[in-house]
Q: What sequence folds into this?
C-alpha cells in the first residue's frame, strides 16, 4: 500500500479511519506502517439532523493501524458541495 501512496503526496486526500472518522487534507508524507501526515486538514463530522461540521485540525498525524481507506479528492468537485445541506449517518467503527 505504501508504494501506491507516493502518487498522493502533495495532493488532497480523504481518509476514512477504522473508528469511522473522515479526514480531509494535503498528504505530506507517510512511512512503511502507513502513518500519514496531513497538512491543512479538517475532520468532517456527519449528522442526520444538521449539515456536515468541519473541524479544523491543521497539521495532523493519523496512525497507520487506524487507516481503513485513502483516496484522492477532486478539489473542484469538493468545492461545489454544499456541506450544510448534506445529512448522513456517521460511520460506525470497523468490527474485526
A:
Amino acid at each position: 500500500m505504501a508504494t501506491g501512496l507516493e502518487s498522493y503526496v502533495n495532493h488532497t486526500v480523504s481518509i476514512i479511519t477504522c473508528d469511522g472518522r473522515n479526514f480531509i487534507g494535503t498528504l505530506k508524507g507517510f512511512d512503511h506502517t502507513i502513518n500519514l501526515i496531513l497538512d491543512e486538514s479538517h475532520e468532517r463530522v456527519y449528522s442526520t439532523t444538521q449539515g456536515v461540521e468541519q473541524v479544523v485540525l491543521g497539521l495532523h498525524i493519523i496512525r497507520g493501524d487506524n487507516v481503513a481507506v485513502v483516496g484522492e479528492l477532486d478539489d473542484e468537485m469538493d468545492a461545489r458541495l454544499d456541506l450544510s445541506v448534506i445529512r448522513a449517518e456517521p460511520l460506525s467503527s470497523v468490527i474485526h
Notes: The radius of gyration is 13 Å. The longest helix spans residues 75-80.
